[in-house]
Amino acid sequence: MKKIILNGTDTTVRLERQAGVWPSQQQILDFETALGYPLPADYKEFLLTYNGGVCELKNIIKPVSGYLCDLFGLFDQSADPGIMPLKLPACDELTELWGQLPSNLLPVGAVDSGDMIAMRFYPAGVEIVIVDHEDDQLNSLVVADSFTAFLAGTVRENEP
Predict the structure, then answer these.
(1) Is residue 44 a contact partner of residue 84, using CB atoms and an 8 Å limit?
(2) Per-residue pLDDT tens digits for 7-21
(3) Are 143 and 49 in contact (CB under 8 A)?
(4) Which of 12, 13, 16, 121 is 20 to 30 A from 143, alpha carbon to alpha carbon?
(5) Range of the domain at 39
(6) Contacts from 93-97 at CB under 8 Å and sequence distance 24+?
(7) Each residue of 68-102: pLDDT tens digit?
(8) How many domains does the chain have?
(9) Confidence band (pLDDT; 50, 70, 90) for 143?
(10) Whether 72 contacts 18, CB under 8 Å
(11) How far apart are CA 138 and CA 133, in angstroms?
């Protein structure tokens, strides 16, 4: 497990990541172009340094009281079939899981309950939201105004 530190902030989140699978700056740029929005600097740092993986089930997302489960990265599905790669909102796999997604909602992770962690893009920036997987209306709860703030805002369960 590797501890996630972004912008010098120790988020307390620990991640089991796919070894040796790192995106290039060009792959990130190509993804941003296809998405139609620039990824926030802290999320790019996350992709270049950690590139997603399975989280240690110790960090609770408040106020949904769910455990942070997976964080998606830019890698091919063949790298590890247990981790979902970062995909554009219109991807069939995402549509099967969560229904039709608006183009400004990028799934970046999952809660242990199956709820989606997503970045919602606006002209002035992003917000991190949790979307209930059982809600056909895609109602969401805003949990942070940056990826770093989202990770740092989780509450770590007491260690034994």
Answers:
(1) no
(2) 999 999 999 877 667
(3) no
(4) 16
(5) 2-156
(6) 97/133
(7) 999 998 876 555 556 678 888 888 888 777 778 88
(8) 1
(9) very high
(10) no
(11) 8
Which tens digits make up the pLDDT trace of 31-67? Answer: 999 999 999 999 999 999 999 889 999 999 988 889 9
The gap from C-alpha 153 to its chain's centroid, in whole angstroms, comes to 14
Q: Cα angle at 119 between 64 and 99, to 5 degrees?
A: 80
Tokens of 13: 């989140």
* Residue 76's CATH number: 3.40.1580.10
3-state SS of 71-110 is ECECCCHHHCCCCCECCCCCCHHHHHHHCCCCCCEEEEEE
Could you tell me which of 104, 130, 100 has the C-alpha nearest to residue 117? Answer: 130
